[in-house]
Every structure is written in C-alpha cells, then in structure tokens.
C-alpha cells in the first residue's frame, strides 16, 4: 500500500489481516518504488495525493517496470483522474471514503483474475516477456534485441491489444525522445523489430501500424 494517511493505512492493514492479506504500507512514494525493486508484492493499493510525487506518476512508473495489479484508492472526485489512472494501466479505482469490506472483495477479485490470466498467458501466448532477465521469447525461443528494440517491444507486449502512440512510446522510454532521428528513429526500430519477430515483415501478424494513431501488438 502507498498511502500517506497513516490512520487509514493502519485501519485497512488490520482489517485485511483477518483475511490473511498482509499489507506493507509506505507513506513515501519514492521509498515504495525503491521497495518494488527489492521485494515481491501481489498487488498495490495506491493513493493519488502523496508527498513529493503525484499518484498518477507513481502509477505510470509502476506500470512501466512491473507487472503488478493496481487498485487506486483516492479521495479525488475529478473523473479525469479516474480515466487517466485506468488508461495508465490501473486495474480498479475505489473512491474514498469506502467500506473496507469493498476493498477486501476487490483485492480478492483482482488477484484471482490476475493469477488466472497469468496462468493462461503462460500456456498460450506466443511472446513472453521477462523483465528481470530483460528477455523476450517467441515460442520459447530467445529474440536477440538491442536495448532500444527491447524497450519498445516490451512496452507493446505489456499493452497488448491497445493502440500505443509515438508520444506514449517516447514518454515511457529512457532511451528515446522526440528528437531521436537518423538510424535510431522509431520507425526504423519498429521495422527492425518486425524483421526479428514476423514470419513476413511486409505483412505483419503481430506488430501493426495504425495509421495516424500509432502501433498495436497482438500476442496470439
């Protein structure tokens, strides 16, 4: 849990404890993000109004680097925040105040769905992404990628089925920016990826260009 309201955090922690749900709370979002690199968590309950860093930015950082379901727990009433959080990749949005029983049900529901999905994907997906090893495989065969290619393809895989704009790719990249040109341009990187993953790069089955919008990835 990333929540700077310590009283609320204690109440929720004690309540969820009776359902064998162990909660570790961080008031500081920077400490929380650091902890994610060192520890394994099943789910994140994220407040949006945090000290030093907006919760939406925290959500964006988590989705970029980790495959963990997120429940937004927020007192913000602006529908834009809810829409933005869900677009960034949050799995649920719970407006404060709420009954702890509702949080308990949502946590269990999302964990059940998330765990089931992971099992299904492990069995059926053509492409598998291993962020810890910085590896992507196709039908369990390793794909040799440059750092930029891995960064772009991993983002597309994580957001499978959604159109990802050029701006989204740049915003979520540590290696690319809007002035990235020449041999390292995004279009060139996309073409190089297609050469490595498609049976026929001229008629792509997995990585599609959506004219005027961006790119969409299908992991069949």
TrEMBL record:
Question: Molecular function (GO) terms listed?
Answer: phosphorelay response regulator activity; transcription cis-regulatory region binding
Which cellular components does GO assign to this protein?
cytosol; protein-DNA complex
The answer to whether keyword Phosphoprotein applies is yes
Q: What InterPro entries does its record include?
A: CheY-like_superfamily (IPR011006), OmpR/PhoB-type_DNA-bd (IPR001867), Sig_transdc_resp-reg_receiver (IPR001789), WalR-like (IPR039420), WH-like_DNA-bd_sf (IPR036388)
Which positions fall inside the OmpR/PhoB-type domain?
119-219
Could you list this entry's UniProt keywords, alphabetically sorted. Answer: DNA-binding, Phosphoprotein, Transcription, Transcription regulation, Two-component regulatory system
GO process annotations (BP): regulation of DNA-templated transcription
| CDD domains, alphabetized | trans_reg_C
State the Gene3D superfamilies in the record.
3.40.50.2300, 6.10.250.690, Winged helix-like DNA-binding domain superfamily/Winged helix DNA-binding domain
4-aspartylphosphate (modified residue): where?
Answer: 47
Any Pfam family from its record, for instance, is Trans_reg_C
Q: Which residues bind DNA?
A: 119-219
Domain Response regulatory residues, every copy: 1-111
The entry's protein name is DNA-binding response regulator
Q: Which PANTHER family match?
A: REGULATOR OF RPOS
